[in-house]
Amino acid sequence: MRRLRNVKIVATLGPVSSDEKTIRALFEAGADVFRLNMSHGTHDDMAARHAIIRKVEADMGRPICILADLQGPKLRVGVFKNDEAELEMGADFRLDLDKTPGDQARVYLGHPEIFAALRPDANLLVNDGKIRLKVKECGKDFANCTVTVGGMISNRKGVNVPDVMLPLTALSPKDLKDLEFACQIGVDWIALSFVQRAADVLEARELIKGRALIMTKVEKPMAVDNYDAILAVSDGIMVARGDLGVELPIYTVPPLQKRMIRAARAAAKPVIVATQMLESMIDSPMPTRAEVSDVATAIYEGADGVMLSAESAAGSYPIEAVTTMNNVAISVESDPTYRQVIESSRTVNRSKVADGIVAAAREIAETADIKAICCFTQSGTTAALVARERPRVPILALTPLVNTARRMVMTWGAHCVVTETHHQFIEAVLSGVRAAKSYGFATSKDQVVVTAGVPFNVVGSTNILRVAYCDEALILADHEK
What we know:
Number of strands: 21
CATH superfamily of the largest domain: Phosphoenolpyruvate-binding domains
Number of domains: 3
Structural class: alpha/beta
């Protein structure tokens, strides 16, 4: 199936989208990547969804990417005597290690590591920032606070600590089990939560051992501060605007989103924009105008993908949500302004031979009447470099490795095709033109650009480019000469 847009759609699976009929319909409506949210559901649930996706993939004949999203450490208060308490602005409130049910004056917070990191004037945000506390004094087992934003606080609400680096690993005991399970069933990407520094990503990489790529979720102020170092050791980035919008002033998130997208694109790494993109469609068959503008903005900024969460996992209109996102993407990418914005933000990076090859491929494709760029790749790097150029013509990403093809689905514009293993460039050219014709990108009278690396089947060796007619007889005759 050929998509009529370049940006990818990530759809989260959940209670309303776990059967084969719905998953198939989501794919047909435009979902390219399916997200398994490890915060909800059992391993048996995830394994069943994984198996269905692979069946749909086999039936459709097009690689499908699977992203497993780890929960990360969850910081929560304890319980209250009456299940809730009203906190008034200006009142004193204490957090401590006493498991006695709380009241208006105090509550249990079972995370001594938080108390160890706190300092006076640090802020604590409860229930997505609806309750805000400022620390007056603290010790190894308590924090006495002033309520700066009051309201109703109830059992086990989440706590955010935006102002300090918490001495916590990004992988909780649950995450360690979920990560190993996800790798064993064969997911393509792991989304890593609660990242604060590059070391968190490196820790996960040691455990994954190459079995999946790492999508780092930027959702904490510390991750924003350390973004360049985190980007350098990540395979992709997710701009997770949920916690980010809680822990930072919400008006700072749009410019941060723009900067993170541009930096990830310059590094030729996929970047996904997530959280509340079409949230009203959880309950409504139509989105708001503001939501449509939000999705469009991410596409104009050059994001590789846009993500649906509860809209497709638990909402009443999962298929409609994917269809809406697909239609918005097609509309935006058809706008002449889109090309102007994308091309004006192109980063010139010419440090390696491969950079020059893919830049030349894009320039040739846009100068002559070229129908597609066919890039052969072992690891997916060549396709990512071509995608960084954001060419006006389609990208055919060809590889003999099915795992590489699935991983490349996350990349902007990549139409992924699994081919035979090739040992000569002529074989690659023939395979490329056959794929271009087979998937409707070109006819025998058209031309394509083919890029590859010689010697073949060596990672990172992209060093050759050819413009080829899609007439196999002409290619073979020229080769004989």
